[in-house]
Amino acid sequence: QVHLVQSGAEVQKPGASVKVSCKTSDYNFNSYAFNWVRQVPGQGLEWMGVITTQSGNTNYELKFQDRVTMTRDTATSTVYMEVRNLRSDDTAMYYCALGSGLDYWGQGTLVTVSS
Amino acid sequence: DIQMTQSPSSLSASIGDRVTITCRASQDIGWHVSWFQQRPGKAPKSLIYGATSLQPGVPSRISGSRSGTDFTLTLSSLQSEDFAAYYCLQYKAYPRTFGQGTRVDI
After folding, report:
1. Which of A62, A110, B38, B66 is positioned for an S-S bond with B44, CB 3.0–4.6 A?
2. Three-state DSSP class for A109?
3. CB distance A104–B46 less than 8 Å?
4. Inter-chain contact A44–B91, Cβ cutoff 8 Å?
5. Does the pLDDT value for residue A27 go beyond 80?
6. Distance between CA A24 and CA A20 in Å, rounded?
7. Contact B37/B47 with Cβ under 8 angstroms?
8. B92 and A CB contact within 8 Å
9. B4-32: buried (b, 16+ CB within 10 Å) or exposed (e) per residue?
């Protein structure tokens, strides 16, 4: 069973950036694809993009391409997602999910954007 | 992008009922579909991958099937813990796309 632990809730002002982390203790860290999924309160799931841990290659949903960067740190088995130029409609729960079929999920990180 | 059209958006059911939720893909995606359950205030949980394969620990009353580009999640005898939201996902191509979700209420 793979366990993913995300960083804690964040409150940011419009125009600021936020960086969310997702850590796994699984020894196969270099064999995975980590996806990021967003859920605005009361709404459905929205795929944001993916990073493959072995190569660091990324693939972003077009609407996030200009403001989102996904990175990984193989030394600590951690992936990161940074969202820049935050807007109020970025207020959401952000999840990391591991595997092509999103088999394992982190607990979620609530990001609140408010002035 | 591949569209996943999920129906119904919500349904009311009772304990012991049989419930089916459908996702239709806008093009051929083979067997590359996952189904997720999300209880209120919780992270989604994977139930099925490869359209029909149960994740470890998922009860056998939950099943998935495929007919062409139509994918179905069936809960054969609804239990109290099954009242939740359900989503399909296609992972045949990028961008990955989810269905709009189905809320199962009492």
Report:
1. B38
2. strand
3. yes
4. no
5. no
6. 14
7. yes
8. no
9. bebeeeeeeeeeeeebebbbbbeeebeeb
Optimal mutation site among A32, A47, A57, A58, interface B, most CBs of chain B within 10 A: A47
Task: Write out pLDDT tens, residues B33-60.
Answer: 999 999 999 999 999 999 999 999 999 9
Tokens of A65: 């391409």
Q: Which of B55, B96, B99 sits opposite A35 (nearest CB)?
A: B96
Q: Is A45 on the interface with B (CB under 8 A)?
A: yes
Chain B: residue nearest A36 by CA?
Answer: B96
DSSP labels, A45-57: -EEEEEEETTT--
Q: In chain A, what residues touch B38 (CB-CB under 8 Å)?
A: 45
3-state secondary structure at position A63: helix
One-letter amino acid for residue B8 of the chain: P
| Count of beta carbons in the 10 Å neighbourhood of residue A1 | 6
- For A8, the token pair is 């804690």
> Average pLDDT of B80-102?
97
- Locate the chain B residue with the closest alpha carbon to A107: B43
CB contacts of B96 in chain A (<8 Å) are: 35, 47, 50, 102
Residue found under tokens 């929205």: A46
Cα–Cα distance for residue pair A105/A107, rounded to 1 Å: 7
